[in-house]
Specification:
Layout (H helix, E strand, L loop, with lengths): L2 H18 L5 H8 L5 H22 L12 H18 L3 H9 L6 H22 L13 H5 L3 H21 L3
Length: about 180
């Protein structure tokens, strides 16, 4: 199977899980933004934890090679602000917009149009951004374990423990 085929299959599985977890629902999105329902946070953090374990296990077994992208603070901050503003205005993040459209919620089409327009603007502005925003705070290709100078499994185990404790706290608070 090609890389595109793997991407298609994993995308379908991820979309199915988004729908089954009910995280593509507008009311869940708004409740997450208002810190009233942590379903989306739990879903995404679980995905991150599983990916951390899986990717580093595959790396350590020599099955995959990591291809790190540089950590650029300017791009992350500006991109995060644009992402957050769009999510707050629309009540959907990019993945959930597509899932909502798949469920027949036509209000999500505005966010999809916005993403396409935004991608076009980014493409047109890339030469300018490449020499400005995408250079601000360029930390290079680094990872948290490299910064701390420790084995990646120590960081992964710490994140898993923090995740479990956070999930338990959310459950106690009814979130």
């Amino acid at each position: 199977m090609s890389d595109l085929g793997y991407g298609l299959v994993t995308g379908i599985i991820f979309g199915f899980l988004l729908q089954k977890a009910r995280v593509i629902r507008y009311d869940k999105q708004i409740a997450a933004l208002r810190l009233l329902d942590m379903t989306i946070v739990k879903f995404m953090f679980t995905s991150i934890l599983v990916a951390m374990v899986g990717v580093y296990l595959l790396k350590d077994l020599g099955i995959v090679k990591l291809s790190l992208k540089p950590a650029v603070l300017g791009g992350n901050i500006v991109g995060g602000l644009i992402f957050g503003i769009g999510w707050g205005l629309l009540g959907y993040c990019p993945g959930t917009q597509l899932g909502a459209l798949g469920e027949g919620r036509w209000d999500s089409i505005w966010g999809i149009i916005g993403m396409l327009v935004g991608a076009g603007i980014f493409a047109e502005m890339f030469p300018f951004l490449k020499n400005t925003v995408l250079k601000w705070g360029d930390l290079g290709k680094i990872t948290i374990p490299q910064i701390l100078g420790i084995n990646h499994w120590i960081v992964i185990v710490a994140f898993v423990i923090i995740g479990i404790l956070t999930f338990r706290w959310f459950e106690k608070k009814g979130l």
